[in-house]
Specification:
The complex is a heterodimer of chains A (177) and B (93).
Chain A (H helix, E strand, L loop, with lengths): L1 H8 L5 H19 L6 H15 L1 H4 L2 H6 L6 H19 L11 H7 L3 H22 L3 H9 L4 H22 L4
Chain B lengths: L1 H20 L4 H8 L5 H22 L13 H18 L2
Helix pairs in contact in B: 2-4
Classes of the chains: A mainly alpha (177), B mainly alpha (93).
């Protein structure tokens, strides 16, 4: 029992241990809910709900009616859970902190300006979500959930993701790489 | 309804595992592309190995059937992955 408590309060686990936990969650999702874990699709569901409220004509198409329905789906609820799970993790290790630009590595390389971090994060997130939309999933929804079903799509995606990620990191870090 | 409660619980476990692996931090995500911290790969591949063995064993025992498998569009998956990687390295999410 004490051992469990120590583990619960530890700030970082070995990534292997955390990976085992995620693997079990992935199996349970299929077994109990007949669903696949994922995150990016839920953002599209939410975007569809907002879009249908703001511009119903524009969003009344195949994509938002059938492919990514504008509803509170299983994935949206999962996303809410992820938010609270991350928070629980931070509370358990007492590292929870509200911060607008807290990463020391970012500050060292790109400077301390908060607008820069937020601006690049905003633009980068658009690129990221657009890529996920084309591929049909993100790191969790396609790479992990697809990979565990041995879907070829997942491995193509992982290859593409690492290839361009490494090149982008090379370009933005330059001599600091 | 039960399904939504399950989603919430599984989501909490998912978020918890991400936090404990440190993947809620910018540096952890970006450093895998700089080969200085391989946590992302260790985490992803462990999750993959555990869940794929679990799923195939359970299916072999006839306890589960697979849900809709993500479709393969060679160009779509690859180009999507290439665009996604750019965003991931820029934001660290």
């Amino acid at each position: 029992m004490n051992w469990l408590k120590t583990q619960f309060q530890k700030e970082l686990w070995s990534p292997y241990a955390a990976g085992v936990l995620l693997g079990i969650v992935g199996v349970l999702a299929v077994w109990m809910s007949d669903s696949l874990l994922g995150a990016s699709g839920a953002f599209e569901n939410l975007a569809g709900i907002i879009g249908k409220a703001a511009a119903p004509q524009l969003f009344n198409n195949m994509y938002f009616n059938f492919i990514m329905p504008s509803q509170i789906t299983w994935g949206v609820v999962l996303l809410v859970g992820i938010f609270f799970g991350g928070m629980l993790g931070a509370f358990s290790s007492k590292t929870w902190k509200l911060s607008v630009n807290g990463d020391t590595q970012w500050k060292r390389i790109f400077g301390p300006q908060t607008w820069k971090r937020w601006g690049i994060a905003f633009l980068g997130a658009i690129v990221l979500q657009y890529g996920a939309g084309i591929a049909g999933g993100c790191t969790s929804g396609l790479a992990i959930s697809g990979g565990m079903l041995l879907a070829p799509a997942a491995f193509l995606f992982i290859g593409g993701m690492f290839a361009s990620g490494i090149i982008t990191a090379l370009l933005v870090y330059r001599r600091n790489y | 309804m039960t399904n939504y409660i399950l989603a919430l619980i599984l989501g909490v476990m998912f978020g918890f595992s991400l936090n404990k692996a440190g993947l809620t931090r910018y540096a952890k995500i970006v450093n895998v592309f700089r080969f200085t911290d391989m946590s992302v790969l260790k985490f992803m591949m462990t999750a993959l190995v555990v869940s794929m063995s679990g799923l195939y064993v359970l299916r072999g025992l006839g306890l589960i059937s697979f849900p809709r498998i993500p479709e393969t569009y060679i160009v779509g998956n690859l180009v999507g992955g290439l665009i996604f990687g750019v965003g991931m390295a820029l934001t660290g999410y």
